[in-house]
């Protein structure tokens, strides 16, 4: 069963859960403010902690990591 929500209902539910930004606002904030570059020598355990932090801070986004020249870059997009 699917339940249709109006946009205002959706944002009210997000606000009740402590999320005050729309998915696009979260993506814009991530792209503008978040430190996306970390050392590539970061242990896997630390990468997992970083991913958990990002997922908690930006619940409407998904993340992909890409290795570059001695850097680990997080790329975000809005969940479908």
Overview of this protein structure:
The protein contains three helices and three strands; from the N terminus they run H-H-E-H-E-E. It has about 80 residues and is of the alpha+beta class. It has one domain. The radius of gyration is 15 Å and the shape is elongated.
Question: How would you sum up this structure in a few lines?
Answer:
Helices cover 44% and strands 22% of the residues. The protein is an alpha+beta fold.
The averaged pLDDT comes out at 75
Strand content: 15-25%
Radius of gyration, in angstroms, nearest whole number: 15 Å
Number of domains: 1
By DSSP, the count of extended strands is 3
Report the uncertain regions: none
How much helicity do the residues have?
Answer: 40-55%
Biggest beta sheet summary: 3 strands, antiparallel
Can you write the helix and strand succession as a string?
HHEHEE
If strands are numbered along the chain, what order do they take across the biggest sheet?
Answer: 1-3-2
Number of helices: 3
Structural class: alpha+beta
Shape: elongated
Question: How many angstroms does the end-to-end distance come to?
Answer: 19 Å
How does the SSE layout of this entry go?
Layout: H1 7-16, H2 23-33, E1 37-39, H3 44-57, E2 61-67, E3 71-78
Antiparallel strand pairs: 1-3, 2-3
Can you give keywords for this protein?
alpha+beta; three-stranded antiparallel sheet; 3 strands; 22% strand; elongated
């Amino acid at each position: 069963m699917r339940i249709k929500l109006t946009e205002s209902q959706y944002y009210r539910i997000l606000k009740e859960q402590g999320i005050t930004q729309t998915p696009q606002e979260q993506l814009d904030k991530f792209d503008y403010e978040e430190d996306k570059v970390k050392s590539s020598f970061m242990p896997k355990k630390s990468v997992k902690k970083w991913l958990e932090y990002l997922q908690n801070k930006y619940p409407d986004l998904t993340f992909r990591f890409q290795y570059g020249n001695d850097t680990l870059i997080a790329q975000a997009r809005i969940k479908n």
